[in-house]
Design brief:
The structure is a homodimer of 175-residue chains.
Chain A (H helix, E strand, L loop, with lengths): L23 H24 L4 H12 L5 H8 L3 H13 L3 E5 L7 E5 L1 H24 L6 H9 L23
Chain A binds a DNA duplex (30 and 30 nucleotides) through helix 4.
Chain lengths: 175, 175
DNA sequence: AGGAATATGTCAGTACTATTGACTTAATTT
DNA sequence: AAATTAAGTCAATAGTACTGACATATTCCT
């Protein structure tokens, strides 16, 4: 008689809400924000047949020109074999070039070419503009508060000053 | 003579910086924050042999119990065939149950079981705690500012009040 | 009533990305 | 000289997503 709601046993009818998960609103907002944030570069990447792995590799090489293959592998936290394909494509397409290390000639130091530099800027500009727009829309003058929040979201947030100059914060990504 | 820096032509030696991309710091911080943010549930999911697709499906079904398969497909923006595998596993593992629609018997309305409810809470709690901790560390009293920022990061940000009660903000995810 | 459209599910084939493991070459370190 | 390191490659496997085609049951429309 009372089957207006699905009366199946062991079925939960009630939606999860902030009373179950206090920060559920932010969880969801972060999900959608990041989704749209990555959609911009994804569109550009697809024109080259590239994916996000190419974006990350090119980005970090541009952020730290002259890094070794081993460093990039450690930073991206992928296997040598996975990077191999991505790196090969980026080299073949003329976005990255390898140069034999001067002190250690086993090393193949990674540098972006001018084309690589252009691409990484193309990929990053929409993201930078989106952040700018969001800061304005949200009526936050500078990025200090958001920056503090995002840094605090990390596992071992390097709470150091703003002048951090490395590309990873801690040199190695703790998964 | 002057080959201290890699003198290869068409190679860029200088790192990209805030002078190239004004919001480069936030771009990077958002990347690392989201990476660590998703690592928590990923660890739990792997114990079930699940991936992020399972998380998203279970999450949205828990957020809106009784949604149809078509609605979930549209929300996740994946194909029917892709959802099929994920949904099958979630059903076989007893986390989601399908109930024939009362008004439209073609529909298979999706509900979390008690186990599904438990799992989605397990997955969301670490994320909620991480956000809580970050808000405290960043010395932001409530989440109002961060929430405004994240909402403004979306493509078509529903700038409406905080009382949004749907799981997507706009009912359909614009890719 | 009967045909069109809808909701769901499934099969087959393809592609991409990432994995592990084993091995090679060249250069450096000990 | 032997061990180690940096980089690259080959082979096999797995996970995830895709397209296209098709099947079934149900509802909508005329």
């Amino acid at each position: 008689m009372d089957k207006e709601t699905p009366a199946q046993d062991d079925v939960v009818d009630e939606a999860i809400s902030a009373s179950d998960i206090p920060r559920i609103a932010l969880i969801e907002q972060l999900f959608f924000a990041y989704r749209d944030f990555t959609a911009d570069p994804d569109r550009i990447l697809s024109r080259f047949g590239f994916g996000r792995a190419h974006h990350r590799a090119l980005y970090f090489v541009s952020r730290r020109p002259g890094m070794t293959v081993a460093e990039l592998i450690s930073l991206l936290d992928i296997t040598k074999q996975s990077l191999s394909r991505v790196l090969r494509q980026l080299i073949d397409s003329g976005h990255i070039r390898q140069i034999e290390g001067q002190t250690d000639r086993r090393q193949r130091l990674l540098y972006p070419t001018r084309a690589g530099r252009e691409l990484v800027l193309d990929l990053s500009w929409p993201q930078s503009r989106r952040i700018d727009r969001a800061l304005q829309l949200a009526d936050l003058g500078d990025d200090e508060l958001v920056s503090r929040f995002l840094r605090a979201m990390r596992n071992s947030a390097p709470q150091g000053g703003q002048g951090e100059d490395n590309a990873s914060g801690s040199g190695k990504l703790e998964s």
